[in-house]
Amino acid sequence: MLEIRNLQKSFGGVKATNDVSLAFSDGSLTAVIGPNGAGKSTFFNLITGALTPDAGAVLLDGVDLAGRSPPEIVRHGIGRAFQVASIFPSLTVQETMLAAVAADQRKASVLHRRFPLAETRGHAEHVMELLGLSAKRDRTAATLSHGDQKLLDIALALVLEPKVLLLDEPTAGMGPEERWRMIDKVRELWETQKITVVFIEHDMDIVFKIAPKIVVLCYGRILATGTPEEIRNNSAVIDAYLGTEHAGAA
Amino acid sequence: MTELQAGRAGALAPTGAARAWGARYLDVLVALLAFVVLASLPLFTGSKALLDFVIRCSAYGLFATSLNLLVGYTGLTSFGHGMFFGLGAYGFGLIMQRLAVPIPVAFVTTLAITAVIATVIGAICVRLKDIYFAFVTLAFQMLIHSTILSWASFTGGDQGLRGGIPRPAFLGIDLSNHIHLYVAACALLVLGLLAMRQIAQSPFGYTLRMIRDNAGRASFLGIDVWRAKLTIFVLAALFASMGGMVMALFVSGAYPEFAYWTISGEAIFINMLGGVSTFLGPMVGTVLLLLLNDTVTRFTEYHGIVLGVVILFFALGLRKGLLDFAVEWVAHRRDAGEGRD
Fold it and tell me: Yes or no: is domain A2-82+163-242 CATH 1.10.10.10?
């Protein structure tokens, strides 16, 4: 279980994350929503070690990961994909996956053998298959479409077999059809992989359709948590973020 | 077991491993062939100038290719890589002059000294990025150069190590013999290139490519970016040091210019001329630069201007090194041909 306790982070006088406490049970799917500047990406950055919290704890299965480096946190089982696809532009899809698997198997420093290592091939193939990237294996990452780059970013996180997968706006920059394809893929991964998935999303139709649990952040604080129905009917959330379009029985 | 774990347990096709082994043997074969061709050159020509040219190519080729491990493979543009060339030359020369040990002992000791110094300097430098990394490496180079100049009682100051470097024979190899020295330089070049090729094509080589492309993402894959950068910084220093030792043996001395910032500039020029995307690019650049240098200096004392124009042609005209350009051109032609079919 991923548990966040009293997490705090300030930039100068701005409290980007203000005493946030949350729990994500194993195998859960949670959406994090909130207006721009609510502190959603900062929240992910604190969990994954990109930022060091001023105070608080990030407990994964009881182990406090707050303030540890990204490689350490990854090794404990928290993977992430980024708002802007974070990939390796000059490597092909296949090279990317094989190198990532080698890193996961702690063979990234091997000097005496040739790339790719035979023992990395099966897992890399499997994850490419899972994300539908096998047919594009020989394409360099830079030449992929925006959607495929986002998939590759997620594939990189999945290679590490994370217990918790954090997805920062997986549908950012996509057209309507591509968005739904991506979110269906996220849901499929969640269902088949049995991992805890937390994703940030701005499209409320997507959020209300697939997320059993929603966390609303506003000005670095938790404004509300609950099921889609509870969030729709929460007057504070309606005032601060949803407006009337997604409120009530919409 | 999740589907992901099931995939990990899946049967592995042996083709990848077989291909990797094949590629390695192919590299060894090419290296052997190159060595045989180079080593047999004295049988066909009596030109001492040509053999000298190849020895200088060996020294600069090792040095420039090692810089490409940093620049081309890791994205670390060092302006101070020449310090390790100088360290190699001075370390080897001083050990031979003062301790009179066998050459292999001096060779290994120099590499060990280089490794220690590179670890200390690298531990500081690789924390920095981009231009900060470049200039701090340059600062360290100038520190070493200043030390060489000012510690005259030990290093010979601005006169360098004079009196020649003793080259006692070992295992039947007499490096004071020009042919022996030539063959030894060729052997060191081929072995050094083979070792660097192995580094570039190893899983670690691909880790370096990931760091070059996106160091932040690499750290989110569990890669210790600082450690990987430090490792390649030290390895590259060792090969640059080897180049320095070859040069010290060739000129039978060591001079402050070997550790001056211009030597780092030359290595960067070489990489720009030959290309950084192909492994042998710096080797091609080495031959080009030395040829240009030797040819142009014969006709004009303003050789710097001519070299500058050539560099500008490559930088602004081709926008890449010669070998990179050639490889891309061939690939483009092949793709166009396949498109027609």
Answer: no
